[in-house]
Amino acid sequence: MGNIEERARKRRKRTDVQRAVLSVVAAAGIIGVALVAPNIFQALPSLMGKQRYKLTFQTKTALGRLKVKGYIRFLEKNGKKSVEITETGQRALALLIARESAPARKKHRWDGRWRMVMFDIPQKRKLVRDRLRMIMRECGFLRVQNSVWVSPYDCEELVGLIKMDLRLGTSVLYAVVEEMENDSWMKRHFGLSIS
Predict the structure, then answer these.
(1) pTM, full prediction
(2) Are 45 and 124 in the same domain?
(3) Tell me: the pLDDT tens digits for 104-117?
(4) Could you give the dihedral angle defined by the CA atoms of residues 160, 162, 167 and 169, in that order, rounded to the nearest 10 degrees?
(5) Could you give the CA distance from residue 164 to residue 174 in angstroms, rounded to a whole number?
(6) CA–CA dist 62, 15 (Å, integer)
């Protein structure tokens, strides 16, 4: 169990650094590669204690991973290397920000309606389906059935970003439900008052 937790911690740390790098590049538009590492401190203050060479290494590694994912591209002009965010990178950054502030994670006043996310993704896209389930779990949704997840809070924008990022289109449906039978266990899960 400890090994799984350690891998999850490292993955979160890697994601934090990549998010910081992506944020810096997005804010700058086009930025010199050499300037990315120093500007990460503003995007992710928790890195302040890092030794400069370790931060530079993590930044270069993050830049490489982001390029492979298609989130950034490198440019060279007059012998100077710079980096800019791609449209895919902008979508990914918007999704990361939305996931961090996912409504289902935060306690809000409940309006008595359930937000339901249902999907039907074919077996040939199993990896995308599994990724969607992981994202739903990370964002605080509750799994009601294999392909049905609920949240008591408005999350239409988040679901739209997820659909766009994973290119799911009509494979995912978002619904607002006024009433659901046997929902007391869901209310307990979210800490909502049971009437």
Answers:
(1) 0.60
(2) no
(3) 555 667 888 999 99
(4) -30
(5) 13
(6) 9
